[in-house]
Structure formats: structure tokens, C-alpha cells
Amino acid sequence: MINVQEFARRLSTLGTDAFTSDDVVDLATAADVRISADLQIDATVAQRLLDQISPTLPVTGAQITAAQWPPPKSSRPAAPAVSFSSPGAVDGPADQPTRPRSSGPPRSGRRPSSRRTGR
């Protein structure tokens, strides 16, 4: 858990804007969270405050309230970006080959079963 001043300081290190304690109070008001200058902010409250910031920051409430700050950088590369054009559809790279539908003899409607029929 961290206090309001430390939360504001950590927010300031993440983006181009400098945050003050008053800014954190404004975020809390927008998130319908009651805080005061001496209140300790836990991961849940921090996440609610972070949800009020646009554009979103690359940390979670648990990361920003963790004892280790700044959060450790991952040695793994970030996942490639994917854009969603409509619900359920994913636009990937345009050079992906398309798979043809299965060719061969048509299948019958029944699948073989390992279950025996009772006699």
C-alpha cells in the first residue's frame, strides 16, 4: 500500500503529465472513491483510479502499489499488436496464407465411436 503523495509521484514517472495529490483526489472523485491525503491506497483502489486515466497507462493497480518501483521490465518481447475491426473478427497480418477447405471424399454424417452398443 502507498499513500496519495507516492501514488501521484509514481503516476508522474509513467507519463508526460506531472500528477499532484490534488490530481489523485480528482481521480478518486471521478471513480467514486473516498480518499484523503493520509489514506493508504491498495491495489484495488489504485486500479479504480488508473481506470480513470486516459490514455491508459502500462501498469496495473497491483504494480503501482508494489514495494518495488518502477515495475521490472520484462525480458520477453511484447506481443504483436492486433486490431479488432468488429466483435469476433481479428485482423492479422495481410500476408497470412489462406487454408483451403478440406479436399477428398465427402464424409458420412456419423463418426466412429469407441463406445459399444449394449446387447
Question: Which SSEs are present, and which pair or pack?
Answer:
Blueprint: E1 2-3, H1 4-14, H2 21-30, E2 40-41, H3 43-50, H4 61-65, E3 83-86, E4 89-91
Antiparallel strand pairs: 1-2, 3-4
Region (Disordered): 67-119
Biased composition (Low complexity): 97-107
Biased composition (Basic residues): 108-119
Compute the average pLDDT.
76
> What is the gyration radius calculated from CA atoms?
25 Å
What order do the strands of the largest sheet run in, or round the barrel if closed? 1-2
Query: Distance N terminus to C terminus?
Result: 67 Å
The topology string of helices and strands comes to EHHEHHEE
Structure, briefly:
Helix content is 29%, strand content 9%. The protein contains 4 helices and 4 strands.
Give me some keywords for this one:
two-stranded antiparallel sheet; 119 residues; 4 helices; alpha+beta; two-stranded antiparallel ribbon
Describe the structure.
By secondary structure, this protein is of the alpha+beta class. Helices cover 29% and strands 9% of the residues. The chain has four helices and four strands; from the N terminus they run βααβααββ. The protein has helices at 4-14, 21-30, 43-50, 61-65, and strands at 2-3, 40-41, 83-86, 89-91. A two-stranded antiparallel sheet has the order 1-2. Helix 1 (4-14) crosses helix 2 (21-30). The radius of gyration is 25 Å and the shape is elongated. Residues 97-107 have a biased composition (Low complexity).
